[in-house]
Structures are given as C-alpha cells and as structure tokens.
Amino acid sequence: MAAAPAPPRLGAVAWLRANLFSNWSNTVLTLLGLFLLVRALPPLFDWGVAHAVWGAADPDVCKAASGACWAMIHEKYRLILFGRYPYAEQWRPLLGLVLLVVMIGLSCNRNAWGLRLAEAWGAALAAWLLLMWGGVAGLTFVPNNLWGGLPLTLILTVIGLAIAFPLSIFLALGRRSRMPVIRILCRVYIELIRGVPLISLLFMASFMLPLFLPTGVSIDEVLRAQVAIILFSAAYLAEAVRGGLQAIPKGQHEAAHALGLSYWQAQRKIILPQAIAVAIPAIVNIFIGLFKDTSLVAIVSLTDLLLAMRQAIADPQWRRFFVEGYVFIALIYFVVCFFMSKYSQYLETQFRSGQQR
Length: 357
Fold this sequence. Notes:
The protein is an all-alpha fold. The chain has helices at about 10-20, 25-50, 60-65, 70-80, 90-105, 115-135, 150-175, 180-195, 200-210, 220-245, 250-260, 265-280, 280-295, 305-310, 320-355; one strand at about 305.
C-alpha cells in the first residue's frame, strides 16, 4: 500500500486560525495564555537575565543585586555535577558522560540498531565504570561511595533500563504463558512490586537486606539501590509490554505458526517488534519516570544530582541562592526528559509510516 500523502502546508494565518482560534473556547484560552505570558515574562527576564549576576562573583555582590545569582552555579557547578568525587579526578566522570552522549547519538540512528550496537553499549558501559572506579591503567581507585551528581544519576538510570527492559519482556511473556506456574509467578512478582512504592524497595535493599546476610558478608550500597531500581522498573515495563502484546491481532500469531516459526522465533521476528512499537508511549513514560525517581536514592545516603545540589547550597555564603540551584538542575532534568519524549515521538512516526506502506 502506498504511503499516505503528506498533509498540506498551512500559512501562518491559517495555522493560527486552525490551532489557536478555531472556536470561541480556544480563542479565550489563547488570549488568557497570552495575557499570563505578558504579565509573567518581563519580571522573569529582569530577574533571570537583565539584573542577574553572571560568572565569578562574590556572594556580597549577589546579595546587593536585585536579580538571580548565577555566580552560585559558577562557584558550585563541579560539586553539583560530580558530588564528592575527588576534584583532581573529575575529568574521568566527565569523559564517561561524553562517552554516554556519543553512544546515545549512535543509538538514535535506526540503521545502527543490531548486535554490534548492543556490544558497543556493553563496552561503553564497562569503560565508563572502569573510569569511575579506577584502580587500573594508572588510574586512582575511587570507591563508589564517593560517586555522585549527574554521573551517578545516569549510571542508575542507564544500567537500570539496560537490565530491566529485557527482564520486563520475559515477565510480560511469562504472564501470558500457558504454563500455570510461570504465569502465576510472573503475575505475583509484577503485582507485588507494583503494589509498593520505590522508596520502600530502596529501604528494604539498604537497611533490611543486610540483616539477612551472613556475618562478614556485605553488598555495596550502590549495587543494592541499582537492584531495587531494576526490579521496580521491570515490573512496570512488563505491564507496558504486555499491553502491546495484547494489541497484536491474533492473526499475526496464526501467520507465524503457518510459516513454521517456533514460539521464540515468532516472538523475536514478528510479535515483539510490533508490540514494542505499540507500547512506545507507555515505555518512554516509564523511562522518564525512572530517570526522575533516581532522586529517591538520596534517602539511602547516595549523592544523586538533587542531593549534590543540596550539599552545594549548604555553604552558608551561598545558601540564600537555592532557587538558582534548583533552576539549574531542573533544566538538566528537563533537557534529558524532553529529548526522550521527542525521540519517542520520532520513533512512533517512523513505525507508523512503515506500517502504512
């Protein structure tokens, strides 16, 4: 079937009429939104730009100014971004962040998807962890209780998703299995994990689990938090994948059976690709939620991005400028979440156009 024709391009006036002034209610809301913007933007511009203090500056200069003190970010950005990681070694987590950005850029190209990309991700994550830990190739060893800031937040997110997503696929398939034992076990796990908040799993992993370990045996704090995040995310992702599986018509299964494909071949080549494409909005929503939920690890004494910012404003000289610190990390969270949202929309468009052909 030929691809659907592209929608006609509208001029500026036609676009405004179609999207902002299509009826009386939209017109009222548009005018109200413009009124609020006109009232809010000038004071925000004066505070954040016109009367703000930029670059290196003394706290007394900021106190005398009537605008924002971005000098606090200039003074504390390394503590906010890297936490308690040794100052002289902070080039290592920075290099790891650059490596992560490169891998994300490669992954955005659908032509690069495949086994080689998965192997490249494994090598990149291993290299990143080696850079963070050190102890090899002349790098100073840095225990992970000194990790913090943005690298720790991204490590918990990326590794959590890399392990939780495949696990969620098996859980979703298991919940739809014809074998009662497998189906019941998967259902109990999913419902049990989804029935409790993430913070309770973090408390269990950090404070209760050590009580059940033999004397002298301990598990790393970061690893315990990472396992809790993986288990929690896998349960939610499993339901999103299961929703995608239920949306696949029964004829697809029958066609795969008629072709002589085994169960796993049918799932890998026909069913799962379609199910995941259908479930992309729900999956990305969980991805975004997980990235933001990593801030909960501060409760179990891990210095994530949010806690690192709190430590930065603990300095009495800069404490009154906490709003600028929260705006700074809010911008970081927004950029990452907005990228995931827009890329998921791009994937939806690509998969939808492929199905229409």
